[in-house]
Amino acid sequence: MARSRETSVSGDRQGGVADSRFFTRQGPFTGQALAEAAGGTYQPPQEREDTEHTYGGIGPLQSAGPTEVSFLDNRRYAPLLDGTQAGLIIVAPAFAKRVPASSAAIVSSTPYLAWSRVARMFHPAPAPKAGVHSTAVIEEGAVVPASCEIGPFVVIGRGVEIGENTIIGSHAIIGDGVTIGAHCRIGAQVVVSHATLGDRVTLFPGAKIGQDGFGFAVGPDGFETVPQLGRVVIEHDVEIGANSTIDRGSVQDTVIGAGSRLDNLVQIGHNTRLGKCCIVVSQAGISGSTELGDFVTVAAQAGLIGHIRIGSKARIGAQCGVMSDIEAGADVIGSPAMPFREFFRNVATLRKLSKKSAGGGQDGSGKDGD
C-alpha cells in the first residue's frame, strides 16, 4: 500500500527534530548521563527527584515534549521557558531558576557547547558501511583498509593511502598520490588532488581540493601559465563546505590549520596559510600567499588581497575589503577595511552631512533663496 502524502512529507518521526529517514538515533539516556557528557550540572525537576528518568530525543523549546531535551542560549528567547513542555533544558546559570518546575535542567556556562554534545549523543555521525561498491575504480598501489566505505563510481588513483574508517561518497575522485587520514568523510562529487589530509577531515559535496592556483606571467604574446608545484595540506579535524575550492601552492604548500571550519562557496588561493581553528564564512575569498593566524574569523563575502598577514584572533566583517595587514585581535569592517569604531564614526559623519545637504538652502528652508 502506498504511503500517504502526509507521511511521505513529514517522514517517520520518533519525536524531536530528526527525521528517521535521514538521521540515526541512539538512546534513551538519563539526565545525569547527558549532564556528564555535556560537562554541566544536572538539576532535577522540582516536582520529582528521580535522577534515573530518561530522555529519548531533542527539540526546540516551543515544541519539545516531556521526554525530549532542549536548550536556551540566547536571552531573547527566554520567554519561551514559561510555556515549554521540554523534559530537560540546558541553560546558563542565570536562567536556572526560570526552568519550569516540571522540567529538569543541565546548568552550563556554555549552553550551546553543552547542547552540541548532547545532540551528538542522540545523533552520532553514521559509521562507515565497510566495503567497496562494485562500480568503484581503485588503481594499482592504492591502500584502502577494509573498514572504509567506498561509494558508487568513486575513482581512487595510483598510490593513494586512506586511513581506517573513512567514507568516500559517490562519484568522488581521489587523485594519484593523495593521502587521507582515518575517520574522514569525503562527500559526493568531491575532487582531491595534490593533497594530504589529516584525521577526521570532512569535505562536503562538491568541494575541490588541490587544483592549479591562479598563477600566470605576462609575456609578449599574452599570458603564460606558471607551474603550480606545491600541495594542499589539510590538518586534523578540518571541515570544508560544499562547493568550496582550495588551490594547491605554487612553490610552497597551501595549509589549512587544525580545527578550522570553511563554509560553503569559499575560495582559498595558492600558498595561503590558515592557522588553527580559523573560520571562513560563505563566499569569502582569500588571495594567494596570505597568512592567517590562529582563531581568525573571516565573515561572508569578505575579500582579502594576496601577500598580507592577518594576526591571531582578528575578526573581519562581512563584505570587508582587506588590502593590508591586520594586527592580532583587531575587528575590522568596510572597504577598505578599517576598525569598527572608525567605520561607524565615518557612517555617522556622512549621515550628518547628508542631512545638512538635504535641508540646506540659502535661507535654511531647504529651498534656494530668491
List keywords for this structure.
single chain; 370 residues; alpha/beta; UDP N-Acetylglucosamine Acyltransferase, domain 1; 2 domains; 12% helix; flat; disordered N terminus
Can you walk through the features of this model?
By secondary structure, the chain is an alpha/beta fold. It folds into two domains: 118 residues, 3-Layer(aba) Sandwich (Udp-n-acetylmuramoylalanyl-d-glutamate--2,6- Diaminopimelate Ligase, Chain: A, domain 1), CATH 3.40.1390; 147 residues, UDP N-Acetylglucosamine Acyltransferase, domain 1 (3 Solenoid). It has four helices and 39 strands. A twelve-stranded mixed β-sheet has the order 8-10-13-16-19-24-27-30-33-36-38-39. It has a ten-stranded parallel β-sheet with strand order 9-11-14-17-20-25-28-31-34-37, with no helix packed on it. A hairpin with a 2-residue loop joins strand 21 and strand 22. The radius of gyration is 26 Å and the shape is flat.
